[in-house]
Design brief:
By secondary structure, this protein is mainly alpha-helical. It contains 14 helices and 3 strands.
Length: about 260
């Protein structure tokens, strides 16, 4: 009798275990199999989704789906594919996912992305500037020889941004907004990125007088080196997922 009871117990337990396993497999199939309906993928699942689908998106189909009329001026004035992908609902999660891993902060990433988009700053340049200025630390602070203080994510100077409170300087959204606004001013004034970065760091007066200090030249070199690494990683982890190539970038610049 005990033997039969033991067998019955094993049978019941085995049936329950199999049912649980089968249910879990159904859930896994539903979650991980690629859907035929096109919709934005969750940020953390982008690369795994690409692998599970057995290949990359077709770049022709992707670019055919873009509404170029939404940002005609911006598209005509730059070749930054990162901004283009950020401005499209179907690819924005991929951009946010990538840069959130870089900064280790969704709040900081969103602040930089939003202001870079607003002032039409290439994303790799915006994030490289923030990294060089503060290493993505919104609480960063530096006292200069003249007594002025650089604070926050983009190290805004107290003598330049006199209307900001101390809390404003350390707010990532405020720092990103004024940092990108000032960089846009420097870009428009200087006409090229190298001179604009020199103006951002040393001020327009020194740059116009051809008296840019060596420390500023080292600063620009650091930004460029970090930016090259960012763009390489972005190409491998994001652009490749969408089948985007350098030729696609040149194509977009014409429209």
């Amino acid at each position: 009798m005990d033997f039969e009871h033991s067998n019955l117990q094993k049978l019941v337990l085995g049936t329950v275990a199999f049912s649980v396993f089968f249910a879990l497999m159904c859930v896994a199939i539903f979650v991980f199999l690629p859907s035929t309906e096109k919709k934005p993928a969750a940020s953390q699942d982008l690369l795994s989704s690409a692998e599970s689908s057995g290949g990359l998106f077709d770049s022709a189909d992707f670019f055919d789906s873009i509404d170029f009329s939404e940002h005609p001026v911006q598209l005509a004035s730059r070749e930054d594919v990162g901004l283009m992908l950020y401005r499209q609902p179907q690819s924005r999660p991929a951009v946010e996912w990538f840069y959130s891993r870089i900064t280790s902060s969704r709040e900081i990433t969103q602040a930089i992305l939003k202001s870079a988009d607003e002032f039409n700053i290439p994303l790799s340049l915006a994030f490289s500037l923030a990294h060089t200025e503060s290493d993505y630390l919104p609480t960063a602070m530096h006292v200069n020889a003249n007594g002025s203080i650089d604070r926050g994510l983009f190290q805004l100077n107290s003598n330049t941004f006199t209307t900001l409170t101390e809390a404003d300087f350390y707010n990532p959204k405020t720092s990103a907004y004024y940092g990108m606004s000032h960089l846009r001013f420097c870009l428009n004034t200087a006409g090229n990125e190298i001179a604009a970065l020199a103006m951002y760091n040393a001020g327009s007066t020194k740059v116009r007088r051809n008296s840019t200090p060596q420390t500023t030249l080292n600063y620009i070199s650091k930004i460029q080196n970090y930016r090259n690494q960012l763009e390489h990683s972005f190409a491998a982890e994001v652009l490749a997922f969408y089948g985007t190539t350098e030729s696609d970038s040149k194509f977009l610049a014409k429209y």
